[in-house]
Design brief:
Blueprint lengths: L11 H5 L1 H20 L1 H7 L9 H24 L4 H20 L3 H23 L5 H5 L7 H28 L2 H22 L1 H7 L4 H8 L2
Length: 219
């Protein structure tokens, strides 16, 4: 018997507040961008921030606070913590704390590398053991057949590793300002374009909605 890797459907709170869900995921990144862009002004306006260090370190501290706030609101409103933001948040807090403690922004720059490598390795490792884990990673609302989940999981696993390598190239070879702009305004468009490119695969391997099928069978 073939098993179907069914992705958990979003709960009612997520369905009714999609913009809030998006804001909670993007909000900390925008705070990080603003903190780095206006770090010197923030240090002058709020002298307590001047002890943190460079604008990038100030942005890191604000990023950590915004991440905690976003996770708390997600837990209250959606009754659970989405897997990807939660794992990313944990890495932000660990590497952000190291950056602030050692006054070395290398750790926060490595955060996207660590997170993307982690997700890519988990997805590809799951495939190695015959498990398509993508539905649980994304809390997806659609359901695919086994072949669709395997192909989509493989593609996303490779894509996460690509993002990890790309982050390493950018932060090691360009200025802090370029890296921050890439992190906020580069990664998201790349991810959106990649997601849209997967839609033909999703449509091809989508399973019929069980609720729609049941309604069609009723007299």
């Amino acid at each position: 018997m073939n098993t179907q890797h069914q992705a958990p459907s979003p709960n009612s709170a997520e369905q009714h507040h999609p913009l809030l869900k998006l804001a909670l995921e993007l909000g900390p990144l925008l705070v990080f961008f603003f903190g780095n862009l206006r770090g010197e002004w923030l240090a002058r306006t709020f002298p307590v921030l001047s002890s943190i260090g460079s604008p990038l370190l100030i942005a890191t501290a604000l990023f950590m606070v915004a991440t905690i706030v976003a996770l708390v609101i997600s837990r209250i409103v959606f009754k659970h913590l989405p897997l990807m933001p939660f794992v990313s948040g944990v890495v932000v807090l660990v590497f952000g704390s190291l950056s602030l403690w050692l006054h070395d922004d290398t750790f926060i720059k490595m955060k996207p590398t660590i997170v993307n490598t982690l997700f890519g390795t988990v997805l590809l490792g799951g495939l190695f053991f015959g498990k398509s884990l993508l539905g649980y990673v994304f809390n997806a609302a659609f359901q695919l057949d086994d072949e669709g989940w395997r192909k989509l999981t493989l593609r996303w696993g490779i894509f996460f590793l690509f993002l990890a390598v790309l982050n390493e190239v950018v932060w090691r070879n360009f200025s802090d300002a370029v890296w921050v702009n890439f992190k906020v305004w580069g990664t998201m468009p790349i991810t959106i374009l990649f997601t849209l490119a997967q839609m033909p695969l999703v449509m091809k391997h989508s399973l019929p909605d069980e609720r729609t099928t049941e309604n069609d069978k009723r007299p």
